[in-house]
Amino acid sequence: GRIPVPDRQSTATHCPYCALQCGTHLRHSDGVTTVQPSDFPTNQGGLCTKGWTAPSLLDTASRLRSPLVRGPDGELAPSDWDTALDVVSDRIARIRDEHGPDAVGVFGGGGLTNEKAYLLGKFARVALGTSQIDYNGRFCMSSAAVAGTAAFGVDRGLPFPVTDLGQAETILLAGANPAETMPPLMRHLSRAKLIVIDPRRTRTAESAALHLQPVPGTDLALALGLLHLTVTEGLLDKDYLAERTTGFEDAWERALSWWPERVERVTGVPVAEQREAVHMLGAAERAYVLTGRGAEQHSKGTDTVAAFIDLALALGLPGREGSGYGCLTGQSNGQGGRELGQKADQLPGYRSITDPEARARIAEVWGVAPEALPGPGRSAYELFDALGTAGGPRALLVFDSNPAVSAPRSDRVTERLASLDLLVVADFVPSETAQLADVVLPVTQWAEEEGTMTNLEGRVLRRRRLLSPPPEVRSDLDILHGLAVRLGEPGHRFPTEPREVFAELRRATMGGKADYSGITYDRLDAGEALHWPCPLLPESRAPHPGTPRLFLDRFAHPDGRARFAAVDHRAPAETTDDAYPLYATTGRVLAQYQTGAQTRRVPELNEAVPEPFVEIHPDTAERAGLRHDDRAAVISARGRTVARVRLDGSLRTDTVFLPFHFPGDGRANLITNTVLDPQSKMPEFKVCAVRIEPISEP
Ligand code: SF4
């Protein structure tokens, strides 16, 4: 790899991976970049193995170092920037002229800085004039975003600082495994009694006081059962209900029939454990209900999260200091990514793209007519499924995402990507999606750029530059500027300086739900802890201190009350039968992140978990003729993936588990179901029906 050139000797910044955004000190000396954890509140001096090894991403041997353009021979070949950007803009212009603006799509990522996410949304709507933009957060916490907005009027992953969790006596974790996905979070949970809901006995479940192990796809029934017991065991907070909520009666009407024995029949969770869970929550002075991907990645993910929020409301937790409900957002900037305009249905400031007032406000900031702004576009999977089809996009620009591995039916998505007239990928490594591209644009990464990120508690953080990027590598902001100008936009509309973009972003979010207008780089650099909303106040007043805790006085609905949701259980889209007798569920491991495009390139991480595996109960394995370490095919109605067998006696005998971090024929998403949650458009990653068979070693 190259020897990185330091801009300075050291800097304070944050880990590039997950939404905990652990604070770090980066140092460069004698040609080596090293990282040390800082005592930032979310990590308090801790880091996980991904954070410790992050510097090796900076000079990974497979780093993209110049633009690549696919030539007539079908091969990607190095090019210069002018040629690459000319190729992209010429082809976009041609496709747009022939098929209209919606023939060009954009797909963003939850790892982009706030500045990049904002400018990408503006680029799509203004420079391309397309409605076809979405981002990979759709596959992450979109169900919690919909349910949280419906309940509280606004969704912020944690509407309180992470450190508040340290005071809790009981914490219910529904479908979250932070001991592997964000280990430093566990130090905030160590004083609480944990109740973990997960079909697997994860590392988090091992540390829990109580582990409820439902059949995959039945979490909603379990949440309704816990609400039922909260009422029948006399734990309902009636004063809170009367003062701060509406809609309990309708929710109760649905939960009424979910008596404990019925819940046990459907979920497999014994009545005694259900009862113990509600009493642990009900007896606590301070308690939290937290959801993760396990509750959210279902065709009924929104309703499942809504049912857990109902449970928290029934216990009187949200909006009380030291108690509450929250969603553990996964990606580094999943929070900022979803509120700054990358989503198909959103404009910056967490504004709806169909709201006339919001459209007028954003159009004014962008200097265009409101009617020139496109309407809502397709959600992530709908977008991929439409690529190259009649009426679907014929070109796609992908920033910071790897849908060839992360999307359900990834074989079909790969075919669709390959069928496009133009696929452009901006990334710093040759991801599986980049390998399919017509043009690959090499971009800067975390320690080579300035900007801001918004972590899982809605706190805006500074990402700082330590090193110069390799000479032929550019920021995504430069790329958007270069393309916009070639497409006829005035250059000043697409600034390349992060500070300048942030200044515009502040104006765009002013008055929105996620208001950043009072936040400046200078305030962040001075060490202020600024959680949105943080509105700009008149100069005569002291600056707004930000809002670490939302909802203490009122929820964000016009009447100030939280809304119960009336939801009912339904089976997963696919249930087991003779042909596919097992449930497959997918998830993550400590040593890998997302599709592994980055972490598979870090030697220590790759050695820890180098290949796809499938966890299976020994009895189930024996019935299938499988032993530990065998290679197995896991087959669903849609496809087949190959993985190494890991026996795990703590797993349910009806369930197998596969991590989704691996490419090729080991992609877990070759078997997952494309059915979508009707509200959030989240695919059902967490449950599909499969069988498992031995295969001979190659
Ligand atoms: Fe990085 Fe998340 Fe690990 Fe912290 S927990 S070091 S932010 S990956």
Automatic annotation (TrEMBL):
**Assigned GO CC terms:** membrane
Top-rank taxon: Bacteria
Q: Does the keyword Metal-binding apply?
A: yes
Q: Name one GO biological process term.
A: respiratory electron transport chain
Does Iron count among this protein's keywords? yes
- The 4Fe-4S Mo/W bis-MGD-type domain sits at 8-60
The molecular function terms of the Gene Ontology recorded here are: 4 iron, 4 sulfur cluster binding; metal ion binding; molybdopterin cofactor binding; NADH dehydrogenase activity
Which UniProt keywords are present, listed alphabetically? 4Fe-4S, Iron, Iron-sulfur, Metal-binding
Species annotation: Nocardiopsis gilva YIM 90087
What Pfam families does its record include? Molybdop_Fe4S4, Molybdopterin, Molydop_binding
What SMART domains does this protein's entry cite?
Answer: Molybdop_Fe4S4
User: What is the protein's name according to its record?
Assistant: Nitrite reductase
